[in-house]
Every structure is written in C-alpha cells, then in structure tokens.
Amino acid sequence: MSSCNDEGLSYTCETKIRSNGIRKIYKTRYNCCYGTVREAGEFGCHAVELRSLQETVFALGGRSFLSLMAEAEVDPKFLNQNHTYFVDRSSPAPSDVANDVNTQNEGQTTDVKQDEPVRLRRQATNIMRMDVDPRDMTEVRTVVRGHMVRGIYLTSNFRDEQLLDTEDSEAKIRINMYNAPARIYTANYVRLVSTNNYAHQGVIHMLDGVMKPATKTIAQLLESEPHFSSFRKLLKDQDTAMFSQPGQLTVLAPTDDAFAKLNPELRERLMKGQGCVHSVVEHHVLPNVICSTVIQWRARSTSLLGSSLLLERDLEGKLVITRDVVASNGVLHVIDGVLIPENARIFNRLLSSHNLTELARLVEAAGMAPMLDSLTNATLFAPNNYAIRSIPDEIKQSWMTNPEKLKQVLMYYLVQPGIRQAGLANNQMVETGLKGQSVRMNFYQSMPFFNAAPIRASVQCGSVLRWEQDARNGNVHIIDRVMIPPENSITQWLANNRSFSIMTTLLKDTRLNEILNAEGTYTVLAPPDVAFYQMPEEV
C-alpha cells in the first residue's frame, strides 16, 4: 500500500509492504534543491533569482536588522557562510518592493522587475554604510548572532518544539507549529509571516514582531521579578524542578496585586501552604507551549491538574498583563488574577460555580455554611435547582422559618468520610450526617444502544446526574431530586395512609407484613383502594 503527501517544498511517498509476517515501511522524500521552488501541484522545481542577503532583507522590510548588522560589523566571511536568518519586520515593506522579491511562503513565488535589483542593491548598500551612534558592540553582536542559525532550515525542516542553536552560544530559538486551521509557525513565540526567502548566503524568515532571545529558564524569570513574590511563596514547598529543567511549559504567573484581590481567608490559607496549594500551582501550568499569536478567538487547553482552561484575550476572566515572556524551557504570561481550580474551592463557592444556587440558599438559611466549609473529606449530595423548586412552597416555607429543622434535613445529604463512585456497590447503605439515617445507593444496567451511560446510579431513587465535583474539603454528587429522611417502614407508611386500607389488610392476612417489617431491599407496587373497587365484585 502506497500513499504520497504534497508538503509544498517537498513531496513524500510512503510504501508499506507485508511479506511472510514481516512488515516493512519505505519512505521516499523529494526536496527542491537550494534556490528552487515549486508551485502547488507542479511537477519538479524551478529556479528563483537569488540576491545578496542585504538586498533580500531590505526588500522584505528588515531595515533595522540591516542597521544592527552594520553596527555589529559582522565579518563578511562569517556572513558568506550558509545561515538561516530570523528577521524582525520592524517597518512594513512598500507594496511595490514586497511583491517584487521571492517572499517564499511554502512554494509561492513572484516575478522580479528587471530594474529592481539595481535599485534594491543601491538602497541596501546605503543602509549598510550609514553612520550610527556608538554603542556597546558586544551587545549588538549578541543580538545579531541570536537571530542567526548555522545551516539551512526551511519550514519543511521544522519540528514542533524544536530548539535551534544560534550563533550566540547562550541563546536558542524555539520553533512551534500550530494548525489554526492553516499552519502557523512561531520562533520564540513570534509568528513567521514570510518564510523560505532565499538569498545567496542563506534563507530568511520574516517575523511579525521583535524576537527576544531565550536565555533564562522559567524559574529564573520568576526569581528575577519582585512582583512574583506571592507566587514564589506558593511554589516554595512544591516540586518546581520542572521550571528549571528543559521542557516546553506555559506558566500563567499571577502578580502580587492579583493575590491581593483574593478573599482574605483564602489568601491566608494559600500563603500558609493550605487550601490545595499543589492544585492551585498545577492549575497555572500547561504542559505545552501556547503563545498568544495563535489564539485568534478562543481555545481550550488542559493544565497539569487536568482541568480545562479557556484561553482568549482575557484568560478565564483574568486580564493578561504581559504576553509571551520567552524562556529557554517554555513561555510565561503575566496575569492579574489567581486561577482557583474547583478542587481548591470550599463547598459554598463550589455550589455557586455549578449553579446550585437554591441549595446554597438553603445552606445559608440553616446557618450551615461555616460548618460545611470547616469539614474535611466529606461528600455532599446536592439536588439541582429544578429539584428544589419542585418542592411545594409550604414545605420550603416551613424550612425557612425553622432553621433547626432545615439543618436536620440538610444533614441527611452529608456523608463523612467522603465517598466516591468507584467505592460503592448496588444496594449499599451509606450512613449520613443525620443520626440513625442512611441512604441507599443503587446501580442499574441500562441499554447501551439507547443510553450514553451504560450504568445508571441513584440515591434514594434520585438519579445521580454528575459524580465527584471535587472541592477543597471533599466532593459533591449532583442529584435530580430532594431526599426526605424516611420516618416509617413500608407497612407503617401504608397503614398511616387511608387510601391503602385494602392493601394493608391483604398484607396482614397473608402475613407478608412481617416480611416487610424486617430489614430488606423491597419494592412494593401498592394499588390504592380505588383500584380494588374497579375490579369485578366476585374477584
């Protein structure tokens, strides 16, 4: 089986052969030779007109880079070696110039007017000869060399998270590739806007901004800035070796002002190393490099904690103050708010964030908020808003006017120590916070072809809608009905209800009431008296 892929400047074919149980894969890759390109669908490659490095950079709008090269007094012999140049487009090139050069972008080329090479050569030479103010020549040479990579690297040679060694021994250039949906390339998190531009002395990639060298690790960046003191305090007792080691992380670093905006109690807990500090730290770290230039609208990514983050101009409602601070092992974004994951929130805040506002209102009316927030390793069964609104108003009113009674009801929803779905079994009785009362867990096999969930779960016949919404001091299971603590057995309930007098008599006559009065797991389908009266008299 063979397949081929057109990659612009290259064409790759892969053949898979299986014979006598042995599988072999052959790959053949065709690349255009240096100084040649191919159009989409073109058979073979055709040559482009090559110019000097200075002429090509000038035509592409890299005038400031030419000035820096002049100031650095780079040895011409050094420049005559093959290099890949990453050039900041400091000023837009005039349209008549930009369209006249081989601004090679994955196989696209343009024609050159016959009189243009002369004009470009003259203008580029003037810039290279211009008088400049005296500067620190070492620093200027470092900047220029930090934009030069020895050898030829076309976009077809790039790999995601690739680190290119520059002529400045301390600086590296990190290449990232994104599909958004068209392919986007970045160098040190600055977008490449014109790629694969050939010159006599190498190839030039134009950047959409100023590319800063990556010389410090994320750990060094955090340590060097005084306004990260609170964030550093959080990291103090955590395993932060990853911030110093090679990698490709994205760190969302809140400032001291961001911590000052937190609830004082929560801030105090965090500063003392309490309140799920480890989760808070991991919620600010992404395992891959995300630079702002590739987020055109919004995107979702997953933090080291495993939680989802919505990335847009404002991050989860927090303003990004400084974007794309380049590090040798990733990128750092400075934000003005602290991102608190759900499993670092107390019960009361978790209820509000999941729109369980009716239950939160009952908890407040019963005066149970401080008690809930002080618990550890607890589980709360939480009826959704629809379930609570379905309760008759007179019952809710009786609860609201009698906080002690309401507290007894809510204790029925509390389990300690906490429980998780994986540790439960069918018909298991779970003891609640209401003395002498338990709730029954049931699991039912549903039809997989008609239901997305192969197993349905219930507690006291109320469906469990969502399991294990983690909080700092436990978890919440969301259910679809209000649970009322039972006061009677099945037979007692029937005997106390006049509508079931015949059913009660039949149970006594058959002595089935003795069975139902004992411990067990029964379901009774109880017809009321009116149903019996509809039967023929002789039956």
CA distance, first residue to last residue = 76 Å
| Share of helical residues | 25-40%
Question: How confident is the prediction overall: mean pLDDT?
Answer: 81
Structural class: alpha+beta
Largest sheet: 7 strands, mixed
Quantity of strands, as a count: 26
- In what range is the share of β-strand residues? 25-35%
**Overall 3D geometry?**
elongated
Round the Cα radius of gyration to an integer and report it: 35 Å
Outline the low-pLDDT stretches: 91-114, 117-135
Helix segment tally: 21
Q: Taking strands numbered 1, 2, ... along the chain, how are they ordered across the largest sheet?
A: 7-6-12-11-10-9-8
Description:
- The protein is an alpha+beta fold and 539 residues long.
- 28% of the residues lie in helices and 27% in strands.
- The strands form six sheets. A seven-stranded mixed β-sheet has the order 7-6-12-11-10-9-8.
- A hairpin with a 2-residue loop joins strand 2 (10-19) and strand 3.
- It is elongated and about 110 Å long.
- The chain starts with a strand and ends in a 6-residue tail after the last helix.
- Residues 50-211, 215-339, 343-483, 487-539 form the FAS1 domain.
- One of its GO terms (molecular function) is cell adhesion molecule binding.
Considering the chains and any ligands shown, give keywords for the structure.
21 helices, alpha+beta, elongated, 539 residues, cell adhesion molecule binding
